[in-house]
Amino acid sequence: MGKKVWRRPLSDVERNGLLAHHGSYYRIVTELLTALVKRFGNFVFVDLHSYNYARIAGSPPLFNMGSHYIDTMRYGELLDHLLVKMADIELPGIENRTVCNEVFRGRGYQAEFVHLNFPGNLCYPLEIKKVFMDERALVANPEVMEPMIRGLTETFAENGALFSERINGMQVSINDFYH
C-alpha cells in the first residue's frame, strides 16, 4: 500500500473519476510517443518532478536522476552527459549537487510505463529540489526560477541533439529545440 494522501477514503465516484483521468492521460501520452517513434525512430522523454527537501536530513541534491529504467549500456554516455551539464547549472545562492539514485531511484509509474510500452527509448526520471519557490507561501522565486529554466532548457536541448546524432543518426542544432 502506498503513502496515505487522502484525509478520508475516496468514494467510488471520486475514485472512478480519478482513474478515468489517469487513463485519459496515458492514452494521450501513448499517442504522442507513438507519433514520435513514427517520425524519429526513438525519443527522449523527461519525467520531471520537484521534491520537498525540508524534512530530509543533510544536504539533499539539487538534481537527482533516477536510473532504474534507463538502459545504461545503451544510454550511459547520454546520461553522463546530462548529469555533467546539469551540474554546471548555476543558481544564485544555491549549491548544485547533481546525483543519480540518491533521493529516489526512478521507479515511478510514468518511467515504468515508458519503459514497458516504448522499449528502446530513453526516459529521464528527474527530481528537482524545490529551491525555486517558497512552498508554504506558494510563491515562486524568479531569481532562482529563471536561471533554472534557462539552464535546464539549454541542457536538455544539448542532450537531445546528442541523442538525435548518436541514436537516430540525425544531425540537429540545439536551436531546433527552441522552436
Characterization of the model:
A hairpin with a 4-residue loop joins strand 5 and strand 6. The strands form two sheets. A four-stranded mixed sheet has the order 1-4-2-3, sandwiched between helices. It has two domains: 1-40; 42-178, no CATH class. The protein is α/β, with parallel strands linked by helices. The longest helix is centred in the N-terminal third of the chain and has 29 residues, at 12-40. The protein has helices spanning 12-40, 72-87, 109-117, 142-166, and strands spanning 44-51, 63-65, 98-100, 122-129, 133-134, 139-140. The radius of gyration is 18 Å and the shape is globular. Helix 2 packs antiparallel against helix 4 (142-166).
Short synopsis of the structure:
The chain is an alpha/beta fold and 179 residues long. Helix content is 44%, strand content 15%. The protein has a four-stranded mixed sheet with strand order 1-4-2-3, sandwiched between helices. It has a two-stranded antiparallel sheet with strand order 5-6.
Indicate the percent of residues in helices. 40-55%
Structural class: alpha/beta
Strand count: 6
Distance between the termini: 43 Å
Helix count? 4
| Order of H and E elements | HEEHEHEEEH
Q: What's the pLDDT, averaged over the residues?
A: 93
Indicate the overall shape: globular
**Poorly predicted ranges (pLDDT <50, ≥5 residues)?**
none
Largest sheet features: 4 strands, mixed
Count of structural domains: 2
Radius of gyration: 18 Å
Strand content: 5-15%
Strand order of the largest sheet: 1-4-2-3
Layout of secondary structure:
Blueprint: H1 12-40, E1 44-51, E2 63-65, H2 72-87, E3 98-100, H3 109-117, E4 122-129, E5 133-134, E6 139-140, H4 142-166
Helix pairs in contact: 2-4
